[in-house]
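User: My advisor, Dr. K., asked me to get a structural model of this assembly before our group meeting. I'm new to this, so sorry if the format is off. These are the inputs:
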Amino acid sequence: MKRLHRRVFFGGTVLVFIVLAPVIILRAMGFRYDPGGGIVQTGALEVRSIPEGAFLFVDGRPVGETPLVVKDLPPGEYHLRLEKEGFFGWEEDRIVEKSLVAREEPAWLFSRGGSAEFSPGVLAEEFSPAAAPSDSGFLSNREILSPEG
Amino acid sequence: MAWLPSVKTSDRADQFLQRCFEMVPGLLTWGTFLLLIILSLVHPVWVAIFVIGYNVHWLLRVIYFSVFTLIAYRRVRSERGTDWIERCQGVSGDLAGYRKRIVSQRGRLRERYLKLPSAAERLPAKNVLRSVDRHLQEVDEILRSKTRVWDWSTIYHLVILPTFTEDLSILRESLQALARSRYPKNKVFAVIAFEEREGSRAHEKAAALTQEFSDQFLILLTTFHPDGLTGESRVKGANLTWAAKEARGWIDRLGLPYDHVIVSSLDADTCVDPGYLGCLTYNYIIRPERVRRSYQPIPMYHNNIWDAPCFARIVANSTSFWHMVQSVRPDLMITFSSHAMSFETLVRVGYWPVDVVSDDSVIFFSGYFYYEGDYQVIPLYVYVSMDANLANNYVRTFINQYKQMRRWAWGIEKFPLLMRGFLRHRRTSFRGGKLVHLFRLLEGNYSWATSPFIIGLLGWLPLWIGGSEFHQTVLAYNLPVATRILMTLALSGLAVSAWICHALLPPRPPAVGQWRILTMILQWILVPFLYLILVGLPALDAQTRLMFGKYLAFWVTEKSRRGADPERFPVYPEGAAKGR
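Assistant: The format is fine. Below is the predicted structure of the whole assembly, which you can bring to the meeting.
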């Protein structure tokens, strides 16, 4: 390999680093290119549920099964909905801040089949569907867990 | 004329400088670790950003290295079947006539090559063509620069094999390999350099080897280096120097001019390729600056590769790769392990250093200082095969491997010497190579000690000690994801290495089962773990010792091969070699 070729190769590698490293770092920090508004720093949402395997919709858009982290969300309020066969649905609004992962307690999903199928079982008595407002058909975490709920 | 300073100095100011420079590498490494730990506590975001950037740099480095490995491999492969004696004879005679012969030979080869039906059959022919093309370029260069090529028959070889406690069978195999050289043996002056402190066993081995081999070489000399000469440490260089001085008496008696004697320093377990002496001679006679060059064959660790445990194989193969890669960028190369140079330069620079462990590379810098920077290494595309680490059991082998790695990492002992040398000869320009050599030495050893730790351990620190605030960031979530992706990609570079390794292996001896090939491929999975324990740790150990002034003594690697069956010895059949 000739000296010139080597230099070019070395220079090229350095150049790739100069371009690639900031791009990867900025992406890891949550910066994304938004076709509308240039570059925005996004945040993320971590959604867990008990039991796992519920399908998540963010603002009505299907995303995936829990547990999961929804990335690349521009800061703002998002409406979450969880659906799982045989369980009541679950809905909640969450705020996403830039550069942060919004983490909340897992969402409890209640079985439509009665308390025997509650999961995990220990919590069955504490939050039985009978105690919940029966007209709504679904429950929010906040309604159960937060004091003002 | 400049000299490389010695570790031992009576001058107070010099001693102070030596101590200061000894601390630099260790301080850099430990400083990096400390800084990363403190910053992980205070500014975990900064560390996370640094770590991702570092991993990107690492990935690119692996790719860069892999490309060079491929180029080196291609070169090595193309020179496998070269008849160096034929080339020596060719360039020693009528050059213009010889050039015509090469051109017509090249034409015939090309014609035959084009007629070959499949790519698989074309490959070996293409390798031969590449080799001939390069040879033609060299001949053209000789004609253009009007270099006076020396007659190859006037060249003599002094081959020194320094030994301490190695078994008779190992020395015998090394000498057998030398005797198998395709080179007139009446030009070969072999010296087996024993240590007097080994006692009567050394003399017994000497007697046995003399009886067996004395008629196979011009001279077979056995020397016994006395223990504890003033100014010496118990290092290989001291033994080598003693042997070279003894040999000098014989060279004088034979009336050989020093610049017509090429001296090879081979470790005791080194088995040279049959083409080694021819290749060395060829490269020596065609260069006008021949005495201002060292000559470096490619070190392979194939003697017992089929017996050695996987981690020893990985280290051995990685070492070979590193030196193959070096051979593609010779202007940055320094000598390692077995190497050769003109006897004239050896005498002029005062032989090998007698008080440092890394005699193999310090001798290069002796020449570099003596010729004020006009000193380089010429890569020889022939193998010399050594032993991979192998002791009686795994634990022992593992410890030995660690010690060997630490000895290599101890090469950083050159840093204070170079710094003092360059300071002392401030006015000498060294052809602008000062910074390059210093940087490569320091950066190489720094990366060697730090990168395994940064990638394997410290990179996770922000997550462990960065605190809950950092934990909530997208960056904290992405850090392990990015690291995993980047390192998985870097492992693909290993795939290239594994493939080349396999292609370079000597033929599988019949005694070794087929399944061994499978384990040899699987060994590459171990690399990340070994990287930390057998690469990073020994280097950190060496630098820390140097920082505290606790000098490392030369530790002779234990050598063993299972069964001294000459059939198991890696002789590359020419046909098979060309077929690769």
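One thing worth pointing out at the meeting: The mean pLDDT of chain B is 88.

User: Perfect, thanks a lot.
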